[in-house]
Design a protein that fits this description.
alpha/beta, Leucine-rich repeat, LRR (right-handed beta-alpha superhelix), Rossmann fold, 2 domains, 13-stranded mixed β-sheet, 5-stranded parallel β-sheet, 22 helices, 29% helix, binds adenosine-5'-triphosphate, P-loop_NTPase
Length: 831
């Protein structure tokens, strides 16, 4: 055997040295003292030779080959093999020599690698897929940085002296079962111990550099022994873990893989604020609410809950996406923008969406009823009915103020009582404050298309019915209603164009005191009401013009005076000695409302002109009706002009677009959804049209009002309504004239409704709607179930019916007539 130079060292002037780039050479620390003079390594006795063996004879070669074969058969690593597998020429630690830094010998069934003791300058050693049981040679590699001994037969764990710079170790796929103290391996950054037989995690406490730890597919049943490690990635998949525990101190953790365990809850992850990815595939998580445990992890982007029972929950994906809105991937699938939007719309819809749904529900239910062209007290398309809406947080005084207003301006305003499913408070009158009905009745009214808008508040339903407005309109009055913000959103979607006045508390203490004084509300309800002040003020701030006026209501008296003045400005009323004496003023008032001209004078001159009794005495169509009706119309349109806020051109365009759509729907040119709805009603239309009923209030309607306004009212669900009366007899002539005038009406650019087929229909052919099972009181079949709002049952409100709470609310009704009874289940509200 020739004296050989260790192939790890090359003289600086070696020919093979020059073309190699040294950029990639990893610098390392100085040689440890025990290594002595580096030059001694140049002549390591028995060291393998790679390129200098130029003097050997063929005999020597044979002998060597034989020996080589023998060693190979024994699983012993030979110098030749090592020489073949060395790579990455670079500088030694001292920088004085050039050495091969990497050695990779995979899959050679090696069991004895003791020869590697000589390769002291190795920095990377890869020995996977062998049969190695002993790694003690690593003790001689002080510069080793990366060690891969995966897929071997190791039963011992780190059985060598710790190389000072050892950073990455892969012992996966071995047979190690005991962890040992690794405090000496303080440089260790990545440790892979997958597929071994560990049952417990221990000995890592002092691995102050450990950022990546993988213990997948062991037999670990508890997460422990990881305290204060600077881990960024932790993989414990394929173990026997049932609970996520002891991870709180790992605040640096970014990636956590706990797939294939027995975990039922995500609890325990709450504080890991740097977590970006969690894999919990194939566990036993069954509740969507578990996602709330990671709700606050703002950096969480990937969550995998595949093959967990929770996936069977309805709307699982949307619900999780809603709870974890920062996710970009769920169950290894990208979370799309559409999914994010739908999840928010489903679980926390913005007020616009809620209002749109509410509006759509009521329009659809209205359209599902037998359609009739029905005269209405309400003005037509171009003259919206004058309404005043007082809005603001609960108990801010809007109801009280509404009543007061109706009382003081009883010639102008009537109180529109909403329906509610809550029980009456002490002193509240059915029909005066609210129509108190049961949830079943409420639901029935929804299905019958009675409502214009509804809202759930404090566990109870509230709804403004068309009949509530009509009943005020029939008296020739403008309607005053009060409602919460959501109601306003919804009403804004409808055809009505009220003035909206926001009553807002500015002093939280006063407002809270006021709420407490009522002894009606729980602390939570009070807090909720107080919190809603912000919602109102932010809408007012962010949406200029959303409310027509804002009145601070800390002091009820002052608030009422402001409201009163505002209304008087709207109406052009002037205070005189006698109190209610009024005079028209042709100019704009302090509030900016345009004052009326003859409006108030008319009212004063003929106070009884619009009284219901008087008007009812005049038969519709008789010449006598012309005079009062024209006055009535005159009055109403003027009042409307006073109360209706001026529209911007964009708003006007939007309104006319909506009207156009509905007109087209009525003429069968509509978009699919509309025609679909009308198709269903086609067979009922003739019977409905054959008997247009004029109800009591119809006397107030303008006889000259053409069908365009009827159509448009129908579009808003105002006059195309079902009612028992709608099917009573009326002369074909009247019908013809009504409809005929429709055709002649000046609906620019809109084709008139083709009613010829309907007009010529024999009355005999008109069938009672009940024959179709379409009684006005019976909910119509075919209503899509999903459109039905769920009315859940709630316990009665605390204090309801129990305590004297509200100060007596003055009645705002104009006449002493009994308030319209809440429509019973089998009684049409507009009948
Ligand atoms: N149809 C409706 N749509 C939306 N909100 C409504 C409707 N009807 C009533 N509300 C509002 O619902 C809230 C709860 O009404 P409720 O009458 O039960 O409360 P309250 O404690 O008596 O307060 P308030 O004095 O404001 O009426 C009130 O703010 C009320 O204005």
């Amino acid at each position: 055997m020739t004296a050989a130079v260790s192939p790890q060292y090359l003289p600086r002037n070696s020919p093979i040295f020059s073309p190699v780039s040294l950029d990639s050479v990893t610098p390392h620390g100085p040689l440890p003292e025990e290594c002595g003079d580096v030059t001694s390594f140049l002549t390591t006795p028995g060291g393998p030779q790679r390129y200098t063996d130029t003097f050997s004879t063929s005999e020597d070669e044979d002998e060597q080959a034989e020996k080589h074969m023998e060693m190979k058969n024994k699983g012993e690593l030979t110098e030749e093999e090592v020489a073949d597998c060395l790579s990455n020429l670079g500088l030694s630690a001292t920088g004085l020599q050039h050495v091969y830094q990497f050695l990779s010998i995979p899959g050679r069934s090696l069991s004895n690698i003791s020869i590697l003791c000589n390769y002291v300058h190795l920095q990377k050693l890869e020995l996977p897929y062998n049969k190695i049981k002993d790694l003690s040679c690593v003790s001689h590699m002080p510069y080793l940085i990366i060690l891969d001994a995966s897929h071997n037969e190791l039963i011992d764990f780190f059985g060598f002296e710790p190389p000072k710079n050892l950073k990455e170790v892969d012992f996966s796929y071995n047979q190690i079962s005991q962890m040992k103290d690794l405090s000496a391996y303080s440089s260790l950054k990545k440790l892979n111990l997958d597929y071994n037989h560990f049952q417990e995690i221990s000995g890592l406490e002092k691995c102050a550099s450990l950022t990546h730890l993988s213990l997948a597919h062991n037999q670990i049943s508890r997460i422990s022994g990881l305290d204060n490690l600077p881990l960024k990635e932790l993989c414990l998949r394929g173990n026997l873990i049932q609970t996520i525990e002891n991870l709180q101190p790992l605040w640096t953790l970014q990636v956590l893989d706990l797939a294939c365990n027995r975990i039922q809850s995500l609890s325990g992850l709450q504080n890991l604020h740097l977590l970006g990815s969690i894999n919990l595939e194939r566990n036993q998580i069954s509740e969507i609410k578990e996602a709330t445990h990671v709700h606050d992890l703002q950096l969480l982007r990937e969550l995998n809950l595949k093959r967990n029972p929770v996936q069977d929950q309805p709307d699982y994906r949307l619900a999780v996406i809603f709870l974890l809105q920062h996710l970009t991937g769920l169950d290894e699938q990208m979370v799309t923008v559409e999914e994010k939007v739908s999840s928010v719309n489903k679980y926390d819809p913005p007020p616009e969406v809620v209002a749109a749904r509410d509006h759509m529900t009521h329009v659809v239910y209205q359209l599902m009823q037998p359609q009739v062209i029905l005269d209405s007290t309400l003005p037509g398309l171009d003259t919206p009915y004058p309404m005043l809406v007082l809005t603001g947080p609960q108990a801010c005084g809007k109801r009280e103020l509404a009543h007061k207003l109706c009382q003081e301006f009883s010639d102008f305003f009537g109180y529109g009582a909403c329906h509610t499913t809550r029980g009456p408070y002490f002193g509240e009158e059915n029909g005066s404050d609210y129509h108190f009905i049961t949830e079943e009745e409420f639901r029935h009214m929804i299905h019958m298309g009675k409502f214009i808008q509804t809202m759930q508040y404090g566990g109870h339903w509230y709804g403004l019915s068309l009949e509530a407005i009509e009943s005020v309109a029939r008296e020739g009055l403008a309607c005053v209603v009060h409602m919460e913000l959501e109601g306003v959103y919804s009403l804004k979607k409808s055809y009505f164009e009220p003035r909206y006045i926001l009553l807002i508390p500015t002093c939280v203490e006063t407002y809270t005191r006021c709420l407490r004084a009522r002894c009606l509300y729980t602390q939570a309800q009070i807090e909720c009401a107080v919190a809603r002040i912000d919602a109102y003020s932010s809408v007012n701030r962010d949406k200029p013009g959303f409310f027509d006026n804002v009145i601070v209501c800390d002091d009820r008296k002052e608030a009422y005076q402001t409201l009163r003045q505002l209304v008087r400005d709207y109406l052009g009323l002037m205070e005189q000695d006698g109190g209610l004496a009024t005079t028209p003023t042709p100019e704009r008032t302090s509030t900016g409302a345009i004052t009326g001209d003859s409006l108030v004078v008319d009212r004063l001159k003929e106070p009884s002109l619009y009284s219901r009794a008087e008007l009812s005495a005049k038969s519709p169509g008789s010449p006598d009706t012309d005079f009062p009706l024209s006055h009535s119309t005159n009055y109403r349109s003027k009042l409307q002009a006073e109360l209706t806020p001026h529209k911007t051109s964009a708003e006007q365009a939007s309104i006319s677009r909506r009207r156009q759509m509905v007109r087209e729907a009525l003429m069968g040119k509509s978009p699919a959804a509309y025609s679909q709805l009308f198709k269903r009603c086609a067979h009922t239309a003739p019977s409905s049209l054959a008997s247009p009923r004029r109800h009591a209030g119809s006397n107030l309607a303008n006889p000259g009002e053409d069908s365009s306004s009827e159509e448009s009212r129908a579009s808003s669900g105002l006059s195309m309504r079902s009612s028992a009366g709608a099917f009573s007899a009326a002369s074909p002539a009247a019908r013809g004239s009504d409809l005929g005038s429709d055709v002649g009406s000046g609906l620019a650019a809109v084709e008139p409704l083709d009613i010829s087929a309907l007009v010529h229909q024999d009355l005999d052919t008109v069938r009672d709607p009940s024959e179709y099972g379409l009684t006005p009181t019976a909910p119509r079949g075919g209503v899509p179930e999903h459109l039905s709002p769920t009315v859940t049952s709630y316990p009665t409100r605390p204090g309801s019916n129990a305590k004297p709470v509200l100060p007596p609310i003055p009645s705002g009704r104009k006449t002493a007539e009994p308030a319209p009874a809440a429509p019973a289940q089998n009684q049409p509200a507009d009948g």
